[in-house]
């Protein structure tokens, strides 16, 4: 197709051959740049997108963030918070988490801390800053060096400036020499500021006028010389001691009470002439010295004597005649006096038993007992010695007018040891005890032929050598109630068993043992009975505490008399002797069925301890009144052995313990005998006990 063919022809218009024809031109492609890529978004689009993202982030931050508000004192304090914290009004806007903060203000100590911001709620914190210490400048009037006390405690100060005083109301006290203390309440504002306090000081002295006769004496107070009399001195208030001294005169010390601002004039002080000195030496030395009857000491010594008068001096020493001297001295004199003493002797005759013992006088061998010794009339130590015996020692002062004698009774070691052991003692509850030294062999029990004998009275050969103390009476209600205050021994058919001086009854063997342990602890002794949960489980034979007597001890104390064994407390035959003890007599007929119809002891039940005569050892009621708990467990032997049992104490464990002695309930031949044995464990109204203890 040609260009001409491409021109459209409108059917309504005729063709114009002269019309211009649009000519086609050749197509030339636009040049393509190879140096860069065309942007996908325009800068404007990017800016819009960025704003949208930033707005979204801010919106999320505002939705998630929580407010952190600090209420501070002072209110204008500066607050800094770690991390991203948006300051918003009086607080900060922060995301949940942990933040470190610091609050500071001028004049205050900064305060830091940690806070935790949760996503649930806003956070509010109160912070009160502590004021910095303040300073106080004290201006004293008059201008004198001062010391500063804050609330009674002195603080460092320089030229009246006390630094670093904690803020608050303080009691400020100003002290200085020669002025009265100044005190005032001051509000220390702190904040590192310096305040001023003016202290008007009042004098703390008074004028004291002092004169002396003669004049010209030196006046000093507490070692500080003030001048010579007459003078007027300023003395600080208080109790002062004024010394007034002048050569050749005695120094006078005057107590002067001084009140600030109150002047005074002292009475004229009359000075007395000074003492003289007498240097005294005695032969032999050590003589006692009196001056005008007043004891001064022992020679050699310097004796001060008032001048211009005569004095009487006396010298005396044990074993020597006294010497007297009359002396006078002048003021300030120093004189010597030598005194010779003459020895005085007396005769002492010394004998000994056994004879021919050696005699030591003042530690030196002087001769043999039986001689007469001439000794100075002073105290001497006499010792008399002989091999195999303990030394005898005494002191004696011989007399020149009277012949004296010393008799030394020498004891063997055993005798000397026992001489130091008391024959009688009182235990902590008040009971009396006697020393027993048996050293005996005897047969305990009874013969099968003895009328009234029981099968448990088997004969046993005993060797009793261990010394012991034994109570003279049975333990009373008064003594036992010191251990068990509420104990009652009750009554027997209306007859009281509970009076203080009656023997304690209605106690078990275990109760008696626990009383012994209590008494041992009270007297500081080692307990004999071993216990577990209040029950006795054994005993210690080496303990020195209290216990009940062993059966061998009780039998020896009740029966053994000059090598023979008593059958009854009153002798070896019936009937019962008059006033022999408290048994089931006619007065007990309404309480018990079997009684001694021909015997009356006046007590229906128990009798006060020691109501009847003691036995040959001084022990009361070894028969009658109450039967007695014994230390030993109850056993029955097999018969008389050829070998003696030495100090038997019985086995460590068992069910029952021995009972010995008759009681107020007994009237039969079997029970009245001292060989009678019974046993038990539980309390009865006719069973008590007495205490014993070994002597170690």
From TrEMBL:
Keywords: Membrane, Transmembrane, Transmembrane helix
Transmembrane segments: 45-64
Segments forming domain Sulfatase-modifying factor enzyme-like: 441-693
Domain PEGA: 205-266, 276-342, 346-406
Classification via InterPro entries: CTDL_fold (IPR016187), PEGA (IPR013229), SUMF_dom (IPR005532), SUMF_sf (IPR042095)
Pfam family, one: PEGA
Full protein name: SUMF1/EgtB/PvdO family nonheme iron enzyme
């Amino acid at each position: 197709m040609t260009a001409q063919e491409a021109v459209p022809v409108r059917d309504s218009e005729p063709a114009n051959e002269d019309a211009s024809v649009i000519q086609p031109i050749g197509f030339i492609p636009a040049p393509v740049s190879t140096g860069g890529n065309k942007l996908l978004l325009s800068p404007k689009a990017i800016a819009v997108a960025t704003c949208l993202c930033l707005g979204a982030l801010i919106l999320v931050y505002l939705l998630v963030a929580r407010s952190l508000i600090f209420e501070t004192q002072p209110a204008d304090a500066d607050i800094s918070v770690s991390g991203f914290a948006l300051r918003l009004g009086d607080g900060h806007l922060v995301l949940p988490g942990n933040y470190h903060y610091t609050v500071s203000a001028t004049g205050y100590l900064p305060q830091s801390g940690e806070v935790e911001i949760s996503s649930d709620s806003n956070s509010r914190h109160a912070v009160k800053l502590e004021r910095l210490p303040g300073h106080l400048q004290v201006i004293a009037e008059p201008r004198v060096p001062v010391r500063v006390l804050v609330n009674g405690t002195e603080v460092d100060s320089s030229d009246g400036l006390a630094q670093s005083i904690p803020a608050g109301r303080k009691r400020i006290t100003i002290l200085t020499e020669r002025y009265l203390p100044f005190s005032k309440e001051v509000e220390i504002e702190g904040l590192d500021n310096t305040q001023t306090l003016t202290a008007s000081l009042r004098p703390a002295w008074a004028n004291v006028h002092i004169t002396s006769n003669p004049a010209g004496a030196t006046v000093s107070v507490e070692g500080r010389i003030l001048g010579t009399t007459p003078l007027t001195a300023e003395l600080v208030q208080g109790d002062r001691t004024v010394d007034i001294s002048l050569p050749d005169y005695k120094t006078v010390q005057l107590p002067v009470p001084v009140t600030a601002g109150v002047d005074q004039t002292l009475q004229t002080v009359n000075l007395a002439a000074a003492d003289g000195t007498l240097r005294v030496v005695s032969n032999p030395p050590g003589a006692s010295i009196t001056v005008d009857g007043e004891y001064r000491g022992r020679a050699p010594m310097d004796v001060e004597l008032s001048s211009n008068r005569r004095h009487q001096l006396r010298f005396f020493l044990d074993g020597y005649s006294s010497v007297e001297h009359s002396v006078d001295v002048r003021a300030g004199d120093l004189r010597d006096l030598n005194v010779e003493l003459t020895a005085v002797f007396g005769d002492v005759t010394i004998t000994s038993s056994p004879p021919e013992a050696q005699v030591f006088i003042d530690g030196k061998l002087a001769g043999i007992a039986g001689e007469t010794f001439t000794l100075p009339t002073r105290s001497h130590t006499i010792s008399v010695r002989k091999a195999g015996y303990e030394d005898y020692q005494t002191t004696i002062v011989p007399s020149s007018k009277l012949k004296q004698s010393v008799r030394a009774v020498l004891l063997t070691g055993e005798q000397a040891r026992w001489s130091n052991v008391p024959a009688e003692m009182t235990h902590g509850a008040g009971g009396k005890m006697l020393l027993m030294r048996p050293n005996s062999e005897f047969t305990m029990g009874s013969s099968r032929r003895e009328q009234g004998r029981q099968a448990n009275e088997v004969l046993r050969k005993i060797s009793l050598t261990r010394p012991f103390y034994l109570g003279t009476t049975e333990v009373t209600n008064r003594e036992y109630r010191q251990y068990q205050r509420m104990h009652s021994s009750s009554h027997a058919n209306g007859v009281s068993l509970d009076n203080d001086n009656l023997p304690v009854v209605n106690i078990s063997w275990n109760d008696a043992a626990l009383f012994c342990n209590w008494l041992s602890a009270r007297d500081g002794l080692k307990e004999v009975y071993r216990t577990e949960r209040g029950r006795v489980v054994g005993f210690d034979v080496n303990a020195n505490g209290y216990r009940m007597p062993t059966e061998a001890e009780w039998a020896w104390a009740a029966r053994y008399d000059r090598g023979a064994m008593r059958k009854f407390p009153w002798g070896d035959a019936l009937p019962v002797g008059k006033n022999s003890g408290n048994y089931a007599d006619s007065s007990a007929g309404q309480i018990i069925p079997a009684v001694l119809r021909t015997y009356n002891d006046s007590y229906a039940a128990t009798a006060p301890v020691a109501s009847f005569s003691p036995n040959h050892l001084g022990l009361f009621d070894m028969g009658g009144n109450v039967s007695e708990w014994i230390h030993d467990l109850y056993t029955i032997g097999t018969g008389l052995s050829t070998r003696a049992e030495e100090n038997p104490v019985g086995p460590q464990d068992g069910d029952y313990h021995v009972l010995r002695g008759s009681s107020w309930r007994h009237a039969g031949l079997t029970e009245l005998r001292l060989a009678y044995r019974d046993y038990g464990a539980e309390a009865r109204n006719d069973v008590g006990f007495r205490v014993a203890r070994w002597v170690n």
